[in-house]
Fold:
Amino acid sequence: MKLIDLSHPMIHGQQTFPWDPKLSIIPHGTTKTLKYNITQISMSSHQGTHVDAIYHFLDDGKTLDQMPLEWFYGHTHLIRIPKEANEEIVVEDLLPYEELLRPGSRIIYETGWHRHFGEENFYTDFPSLTQDAGRYLAAKNIRMLGMDTPTPSKDWYEIHHDILLPKEIVIVEGLANLDQVPDQFTFIGFPLNFKGRDGSPIRAVALVQ
Ligand SMILES: [Zn+2]
Structure:
């Protein structure tokens, strides 16, 4: 059994979407001042590798604490759809994996964009799922959709608000190291229990048998 880290590191000042809060990680006390090291952290609930609650775009949708823990854990299929900057992920890219797209299944797609984390265009030029491809996945009633891009689509409002979240599909964004995992593994990615809130960074891990 092996554990593979699927989360990007969190570093003070790290980029986010331009209109979101910036990540601040500031030493608050040290072994010299307080006899222990302790840190003040301020960030977006969607910093780095993270999960979206249904409430993120739907005011009457489930918040983190209302989502069953089972939604963040379980057998997962990785599908590899290599894409360059600004390319689209279309229905035809998903068709070869149709038999994996069953009700309740967990799907992560790797475009290769995770290798660009930290680069200036990570949040602007990522490969983007078309609305048709999003509708195709939503119609399969999958449980979880993860990806190595910072959000599924440049049509981020429609893909969240109209297509994926109304079906209560858990969206896991900004996954790392997907080239190190096999095509099937157990995904573990629990959010912090921010009561009543919309999302949380996760330490995503692939458990490989
Ligand atoms: Zn998010």
Q: What stands out?
A: The mean pLDDT is 98. The longest helix spans residues 131-139. Residues 46, 50, 52, 173, 199 surround zinc ion (CB under 6 Å). The helical segments are 91-94, 131-139, 156-164.
